[in-house]
């Protein structure tokens, strides 16, 4: 009998639990986006849970996040982008009572808790910032950002009367021009309110214009006060990108980190073209994997650093490289399927077959998702994702594939929609392209 601490058993239970979300009320089933900067409570606790988790599970260590999980379980963390009311239609103050602003449905009620240790984002009052909002499933609409009044009581759940009467920022249909740790992001520049200091909440409402559905985010922030001058100092110039792992369709870029008087928040990677520069990635770290390249083609890239105030560095020196010719397929075949799907996610199965004459000892399989899919956990392989690239590495018991032998592993993933998403077009095993059916 399979034990409950078996990773495959846990994954199967998670798949059943997630599938059960189809039967939940619409408020819990739909999931389309959430603020990642300044981080909303659910996203901050999700990140905290990933840092403390093992084996694909979430294990928050922040005291407020621990308390929220104890009260409401981990579903709101896996579903951090789904804090919504499906029939709001702009009636936010009418249908959301005081004390329920941060979690207006039962699923997210624990995130209404007044707690002095919610994860916070440090901001400078009066400065400009780049707001980042995950675009799990893009929709047109308008975002409204409010901030709490001076003298509000953080020891009580948030009330409508705690907010300033008008939003400090409003934006309609911002561009999806960023890529964060969890996929594509809406980004836009906002001017923070001046003369704020100490702990506050930024309350975001996203009202869709193509549906009555609306999303709600509470981001805990700490303002350093409005007496200081706004941050006008740009980060230092990033190092020249170094290129490695060039194939016919992919390459890896890495560069020396920038420095900043307050702190570097991320980097933008640009590709030079005959008509100008094209933004291809926006990320927090100083390395990225380029995909979707054309074989036997010359490319030029450079990098720009940014800080929390929206200041951008000078562009790094550019790197130019040429992709290789399309290699012949190696001695491997990959079969990919998605046997179970639900609104907001799916279960994937992958079978690797050794079509060569030598035993494969240890393997790493890579593929890319181009439709916003993100892997949450896997079994029979260590499955992880950075940006669009998914990496699956063998477990100790799946590392050997004899000639004509196969190994199979599976995973659960979140997705912007349940159907009609693009499936991976290519798989590489230990750097070699595999055939697909």
The CATH class designation of the largest domain is Mainly Beta
What CATH architecture of the largest domain do you see? Answer: Distorted Sandwich
**Uncertain stretches of 5 or more adjacent residues:** 1-31
The CATH topology label of the largest domain is Coagulation Factor XIII, Chain A, domain 1
Give me the secondary-structure category: mainly beta
Q: How many angstroms separate the termini?
A: 34 Å
Please bin the fraction of helical residues. 10-25%
Describe the structure.
The chain is mainly beta and 437 residues long. Helices cover 11% and strands 38% of the residues. The chain contains 6 helices and 28 strands. The protein has helices at 7-19, 26-29, 41-52, 63-72, 75-78, 92-95, and strands at 34-37, 84-85, 121-123, 128-134, 141-147, 169-172, 176-180, 183-191, 197-208, 214-224, 242-244, 251-254, 264-273, 276-283, 287-290, 298-307, 319-322, 332-342, 345-354, 360-361, 364-368, 374-379, 381-386, 389-394, 400-401, 406-414, 428-429, 432-433. The strands form 7 sheets. Strands 2, 3, 5, 6, 9 and 10 form a 6-stranded mixed β-sheet that branches. A 5-stranded antiparallel β-sheet has the order 23-24-21-27-28, with no helix packed on it. Strands 1-4-8-7 form a 4-stranded antiparallel β-sheet, with no helix packed on it. β27 and β28 (432-433) form a beta hairpin.
